[in-house]
Design a protein that fits this description.
Elements (H helix, E strand, L loop, with lengths): L12 E4 L3 E6 L3 E6 L3 E4 L5 H13 L8 E7 L6 H7 L3 E2 L2 E10 L5 H7 L3 E5 L5 H15 L3 E4 L11 H9 L5 E11 L4 H18 L11 E4 H6 L8 H11 L4 E8 L14 H34 L1
Parallel strand pairs: 5-7, 5-9, 7-8, 10-12
Antiparallel strand pairs: 1-4, 2-3, 6-7, 9-11, 10-11
Length: 310
């Protein structure tokens, strides 16, 4: 069990002073500045998240976090989550990090293992889907005062030290969102169908965005906190493509860097993505649905601007 304090299901309001945050200074660099106090209310969250989020912030106060938050969704990842958490560097690109694991209704000891390894754990008692868990993780990172949010999966398929490759361009001011790419780096997985799918969807997303994208399904990414505040996230499961496409179509600077993807380690739980054909169909629906939604929103904004200045 997680050692996070028990929570009341009623919405709680938590107030905390913000620590130093990051602001641009000089050519693309980030330096500390002081922010005013802020109120963090969980009442904006879905009902099933309010209690766990309030308990999380009672144990890990709002505004007291590190500049870089690593958000990890975890569903029944007891065999691997501790090694993933323990392998994440405590500093990236000169900035301190903290790890937020959001446990998605696990029935094993995922929460306890993550906490023992040093993560800050938010334990949701029911399974809601990776996309919704990521969205909650971003909210918790913002509440803690993060300026940069990065993500990695809990299954051990990625190399934790490579997260710094994604954080560094943001700190240096070269990007707002950095996507990892196994195609630019190394793919050590042995599933040829998934490999072909990555190539196909990379080409599809590149056409839709009119920007080269090689790996729209990578679990390694980093972003300025503003991205998570701005883009619309609706997908319950296939959030990687939704976040990437929405970010690019909202005008943020998106780049890719080379990363590594391995097969799941021995003893890891099996994939939860389902059969390849079903996964591909659902992924395609998320890609096309997000693109249509964002294109419609962009046209609406353009019409509003024309009316405003006419």
């Amino acid at each position: 069990m997680n050692d996070t304090p028990s929570y009341d299901t009623q919405a709680e309001e938590l107030t905390a002073a913000q620590p130093a945050t990051l602001a641009p200074s000089g050519p693309g660099r980030l330096t500390a500045t002081t922010a005013s106090s802020t109120e963090v209310s969980v009442t904006s969250l879905p009902a099933e998240e309010q209690g766990p989020a309030a308990a999380f912030l009672a144990a890990h106060p709002a505004g007291a976090g590190a500049p870089v938050a690593i958000v990890i969704p975890a569903y029944n990842e007891e065999p691997t989550v501790a090694d993933v958490v323990a392998s994440i560097p405590s500093e990236m690109a000169g900035l301190a990090t903290e790890i937020i694991v959001v446990v998605d209704g696990s029935t094993d000891a995922t929460a306890a293992k993550a906490a023992e390894a040093g993560a800050l754990v938010c334990n949701i008692p029911i399974n809601r889907g990776q996309g919704l868990v990521f969205k909650l993780g971003y909210w918790l990172a913002r509440a803690r005062g993060a300026e940069i949010i990065a993500t990695i999966d809990a299954d051990g398929q990625y190399i934790e030290s490579e997260l710094e490759r994604l954080v560094e361009p943001i700190v240096a001011g070269r990007a707002d969102f950095v996507n990892g790419s196994r195609r630019l780096g190394t793919e050590l997985t042995t599933d040829p169908v998934r490999h072909a799918g990555v190539i196909f969807f990379g080409k599809l997303v590149s056409i839709l965005l009119r920007q080269p994208i090689t790996d729209p399904a990578c679990g390694l990414r980093a972003m300025r906190v503003k991205v998570s505040e701005t883009v619309k996230l609706e997908q319950t499961q296939y959030q990687s493509s939704e976040l990437l496409i929405a970010t690019a179509m909202n005008g943020f600077r998106v780049i890719e860097v080379a990363t590594t993807m391995r097969d799941r380690p021995v003893g890891a739980t099996g994939t939860k993505k389902g059969p390849n054909l079903l996964y591909g169909m659902r992924f395609a629906r998320a890609v096309l649905g997000t693109w249509r939604r964002e294109r419609k929103a962009a046209r609406t904004r353009l019409r509003s601007e024309k009316i405003q200045y006419s």
